[in-house]
Every structure is written in C-alpha cells, then in structure tokens.
Amino acid sequence: MSTISTIGFDADDTLWESEIYFAETEEKFLSLMQSYGVEVDVHNHLYGTEKRNLNRFGYGVKSFTLSMIESAHYLTRGTLRSDDTLQIVQWGKELMNHPLKLLDGVKETLQILDKQFCLLIITKGDLFHQQQKITDSGLEVHTDGVEILQEKDSDAYRKLLSKRDIEPESFLMVGNSLRSDILPVINIGGHAIHIPHEVTWQYENEFNEVKVEDGYSVLHSITDLPTFLSR
Fold this sequence. Notes:
single chain, 231 residues, Rossmann fold, 2 domains, 47% helix
C-alpha cells in the first residue's frame, strides 16, 4: 500500500446508511401486496422488475419507486387502487427526503486521511439525489472531488482515473460492494478494501467481474483504515 496516493470512497452504505431504508420500504410494499391477496414471491418479482429497469431508469430511489408501481400493477392483476399508487409514490418521496446518517467514525477517518492522501467520493445513482446526500453529509470539505457515475465497472473506473491522471497502481477504492467497489478496481490493477455492511442490496452480490479470493483486504470498520494504511 506504500504506493497509494488517491483513495476513492463509495458513498451509500460506506459513508452513510442507505440500504436499510430501502429494506424498510420494501417491507411496507410486501404488506401492501399481501392486503391484495398476492401469494407469489413478492420480493423476487420486485427484484426482477428492478433489474430489468436498470438500463432504463438507472439506480436509486426513483427507479425503485417506479419498479414498485410496475410490480404492483402486475401482482394485483391491474386492480391496484389509485390511493395505493399514491402511497407508493409517497414512500419514494420519504426515501428521497430521509435524513442522512453518517456511519460511525466516517468524518473522523476522512479528517485523518485527507492530510496524507487525495480523497474522492465515487458513487453511482440518481445525480440529483446523490449530490444532495453528499452536500447534506458535509464531507466534501474533507475530499478533493466527487464523481457520480451511471455505472461502476472496470471501464468506468479506467476512464475516471485517466481523466484525473491517476495511475491504477496508486489508487485505492474503499466500499461495501464487491460488485461495484472492489472487483472492477482489482481488475484494472488498482487496490481495494472491502468494508461489508450489515445490509447489502442483492444486486451488489451478483458479479459481472471475475470473483477473486485475494488481491483486496477486508476491514470490519472504516475506522480501521488509517491504522491499516500506516502499516
């Protein structure tokens, strides 16, 4: 790790809570579908709809909300009431407006590291919502830039590093998703540290990149990062 000059941090579920709120909303959606007598696996149906819609709507709350409405239409055989459609929209608005909660030790860790490294926040999803969360977090003051990508794969990282004139071997990515934060960076010759979160979206556990058993490290908490790097 002695060659590292730039550290990229994933945002959702690495710097602040995110997926737990989606999971809570999905529980409400499951209860709503049960009230219509739906007996099929609602979770799998919704997840399948989300995946199909990614190429159209991208990632984030808006895509999730539209997928809930679409799934509800099919699961209820077109009998979804207008007031329940509005309820799903309201859940989406609540997700968009949910107060941001930093994970423990994030601010203090970035304050330490920004004295030694160039720090970037590298996230994906809805541009407006992600930028709003970054602003609300107050973390921009401790970083040297923000990148909001449509996708986080090897090509995207390669283009990002080239744009910023960063060599892959001097770059370290930190995040909770093997799919989006770890494997693509290892694949282009960079470094990565996986910090698992207790709740991770199912999609992030399905790999496009070749799964590797080594080439990256795993830490329990972001607060372990300064000590790890100092070694």
